[in-house]
User: Which sequence fits this backbone?
């Protein structure tokens, strides 16, 4: 997708050799959003992944209130303000609750029923707490910023992100951390905060962000302490200015998978990495071409998006060696997998025509020699947000009887 760079004034780069907030060239392997002009405005940009493109075609975000409030339903036209959930095939049990985004709002789906749980029209990137009671997500609000360019104070438009949380059953959303940078004086600007995921113990939110000081950081993996409100930068290696994306806590909470957004010339070469906070060790799990990791319940495998010249597909990988064990899809139109906590199903986004829906693959057999028994649509003509990964929670009383508790896997150092 080509864009014309915004010529609105922006802060000076932190290094003279490059602009850490400039428009990325085509081929950058990022399925996240970076700015068209840094702190000027946030604009979601779908750029090529590998030799293909992530097939993100979603709904149009409704206008909504200016960044807050959950009263009233924002009516949006793509394709409607409803989510149609097909009847489950006979004999197929789909336990638990999904959360996903549609037209700027967060939805929950359980027992064949989809329910809209936020209504700001500016919400995206939902994830779930370990107990399934709370949804974390990003909400943006329009604001006016100010920056000095050549000694002249200039105003500019910006969409300021905040990490929010809300009860899974609906209710007032509360702010966890804000991306507004508003020091004393006239200057006012913003940071990026994307893809928040809370640790299993609820103490830490992993996100990709340029907090706490956007003038000194690219959009990389950061850790936010929920108790003391401090950001921590692990200082993980990156290919400037591409940064990181797709953080995912391992079920034992002792490690994080994330994607380092690399490139080889104009070709995107994203790789999944593992970071162990206790040892500060990091290592590559995969070679180029994999992103959007989702852990198996036992922490031994990853479902991931595989990019190729034909598009994107969903695969299962060995979380230690990165070896691809099974290709779940071969249509070039599937991405963003989420592994069921019950272990025997993987849901993912799929595009047909111009509409994104949620689809399910039923695994058959034992690890690592699975096969795909069947696939089924979880939504029909829904127009889901293709840049927001779904999340899935299954309560203990809905777990299959044979499922054992997740086992801790090696730290990966």
Assistant:
């Amino acid at each position: 997708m080509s864009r014309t760079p915004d010529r609105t004034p922006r802060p000076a780069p932190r290094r003279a050799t490059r602009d850490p907030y400039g428009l990325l060239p085509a081929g950058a392997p990022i399925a996240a959003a970076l700015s068209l002009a840094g702190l000027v405005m946030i604009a979601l940009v779908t750029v090529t992944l590998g030799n293909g493109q992530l097939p993100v075609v979603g709904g149009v975000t409704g206008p909504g209130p200016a960044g807050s409030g959950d009263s009233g339903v924002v009516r949006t036209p793509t394709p409607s303000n409803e989510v149609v959930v097909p009847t489950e095939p006979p004999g197929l049990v789909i336990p638990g609750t999904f959360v996903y985004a549609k037209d700027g709002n967060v939805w929950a789906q359980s027992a064949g029923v989809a329910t809209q749980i936020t209504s700001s029209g500016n919400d995206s990137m939902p994830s779930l707490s370990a107990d399934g009671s709370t949804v974390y997500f990003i909400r943006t609000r329009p604001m006016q910023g100010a920056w000095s360019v050549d000694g002249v104070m200039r105003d500019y438009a910006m969409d300021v992100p905040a990490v929010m949380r809300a009860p899974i059953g609906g209710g007032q959303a509360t702010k966890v951390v804000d991306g507004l940078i508003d020091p004393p004086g006239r200057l006012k600007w913003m940071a990026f905060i994307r893809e928040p995921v809370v640790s299993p113990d609820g103490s830490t939110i992993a996100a990709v962000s340029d907090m706490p000081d956007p003038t000194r950081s690219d959009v990389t993996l950061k850790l936010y302490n929920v108790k003391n409100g401090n950001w921590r930068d692990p200082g993980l290696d990156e290919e400037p200015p591409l940064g990181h994306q797709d953080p995912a806590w391992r079920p034992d909470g002792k490690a994080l998978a994330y994607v380092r957004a690399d490139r080889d010339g104009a070709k995107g070469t994203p790789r999944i990495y593992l970071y162990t906070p206790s040892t500060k060790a990091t290592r590559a799990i995969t070679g180029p071409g994999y992103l959007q990791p989702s852990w198996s319940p036992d922490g031994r495998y990853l479902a991931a998006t595989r990019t190729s010249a034909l598009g994107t597909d969903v695969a299962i990988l060995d979380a230690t060696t990165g070896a691809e064990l099974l290709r779940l899809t071969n249509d070039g139109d599937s991405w963003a997998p989420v592994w069921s906590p019950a272990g025997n199903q993987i849901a993912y986004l799929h595009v047909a025509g111009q509409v994104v829906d949620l689809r399910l693959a039923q695994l058959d057999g034992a690890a690592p020699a699975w096969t795909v028994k069947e696939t089924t649509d979880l939504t029909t003509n829904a127009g889901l947000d293709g840049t927001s990964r779904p999340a899935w929670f299954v309560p203990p009383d809905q777990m299959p009887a044979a499922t054992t508790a997740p086992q801790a896997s090696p730290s990966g150092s």
Notes: The first strand starts at residue 48 and ends at 49. The chain is about 0% helix and 40% strand. The chain has a mean pLDDT of 81.
